[in-house]
Design goal:
Helix content is 40%, strand content 12%. The protein is of the alpha+beta class. The chain has a four-stranded mixed sheet with strand order 7-10-8-9. A two-stranded antiparallel ribbon has the order 1-2.
Length: 331
């Protein structure tokens, strides 16, 4: 009997070890479906599960479309300029030897008009980001999209305020109706935001623009972008010594808006036009340093490892733009 029991125990352990091995061996790999599509997990690096030139979109390995090339005079915020052109300070393509106009500032009419337009759109909105996230109220994706400035206004804001902050998130976080982040991550992120407390508190308003990479279906991606905005707004509150939104008082107006996942930002375009001058803020110091090193390499024209995963990372972020001017009323 003892030998039989021993044999059974050994068989159970062997089965458990085999299952554990298969879980580890299959983790991060993709599976081909009956229709030829390769299923993938957006939480895993694209390089480990999708062929070259593909990335994981909505759970399937999908060819990565090359960004559109902008011509002279066209906006280059999200795409490269054609050969012989460069992306100017106004985020429009111009010949390399053509002098650039000075970067806009708070006193420029274009900056005041862009700030005023977004302020009025925010005031006319029926529900806040927090209402939308917590109660599912009201605003459709189209209504939220209408809050985004048009190309010219967004270019103006990015050119005028380079000291913006980029806050990066892990895949799928924060999840709906689940607490995030944990205490250690929260303390780290609040501490990083608190280093910018002076700029954040002195701003007349903070534009908080959220994004999600195309990990799930577009509606879920959009809801995730809004949860990220809400999370960053709350972390900013704590960094500025406010434990809840009702204590914002006379502080800067928070204007949140989400971007649809069907318009991801290309890696070089993000580094050039969105990343700004500040160190990336992520869930750990090591992750911030990894992103900062990758962005520095891209600026220097050097190759970076894990390029496809990096392109996903830069679309899992919230951009915080402290605006020190209030703008003017639109006529």
């Amino acid at each position: 009997m003892a030998k039989v029991v021993g044999a059974l125990v050994a068989a159970v352990w062997a089965t458990a070890l085999f299952v554990a091995y298969m879980v580890v061996a299959l983790r991060g790999t993709s599976v081909d479906t009956s229709d030829g599509a390769r299923v993938c997990d957006p939480r895993q690096p694209d390089e480990e599960q999708c062929p070259e030139g593909n990335w994981c979109v909505h759970g399937e390995c999908t060819p990565r479309e090359e960004p559109q090339v902008a011509q002279r005079g066209e906006q280059c915020r999200d795409c490269p300029c054609d050969v012989g052109l460069q992306c100017g300070a106004d985020l429009r393509c111009r010949p390399r030897n053509e002098p650039e106009p000075p970067a806009p500032t708070c006193g420029d009419p274009a900056v005041e008009a862009a700030v005023a337009r977004l302020t009025q759109a925010c005031l006319q909105r029926r529900h806040s980001v927090q209402d939308q996230v917590e109660n599912g109220q009201g605003c459709s994706a189209d209504e939220w999209r209408a809050l985004l400035a048009d190309d010219e206004q967004m270019n103006t804001l990015l050119a005028a305020f380079p000291d913006r902050l980029a806050v990066f998130f892990p895949s799928g976080e924060p999840r709906a109706r689940q607490p995030w982040p944990d205490a250690l991550t929260r303390a780290h992120m609040v501490g990083e935001l608190a280093r910018h407390a002076e700029a954040l508190s002195k701003a007349k308003m903070l534009f908080v623009l959220g994004r999600a990479s195309p990990d799930g279906n577009p509606a879920d991606d959009y809801a995730l972008a809004l949860r990220r905005i809400n999370a960053v707004e709350r972390l900013i509150d704590v960094a500025l010594g406010r434990e809840k939104p009702s204590e914002r008082g006379a502080g800067p107006m928070l204007i949140g808006s989400g971007a649809p996942s069907d318009r991801p930002i290309a890696l070089e375009a993000f580094v050039r036009n969105y990343a700004g001058t500040q160190t990336p803020i992520a869930t750990s110091r090591a992750e911030s340093e990894r992103l900062a090193a990758a962005f520095a390499a891209i600026r220097a024209g050097e190759p970076v490892p894990g390029r496809r995963s990096l392109e996903r990372d830069v679309n899992r972020m919230v951009l915080v733009i402290p605006v020190p001017c209030a703008g003017t009323k639109e006529e």
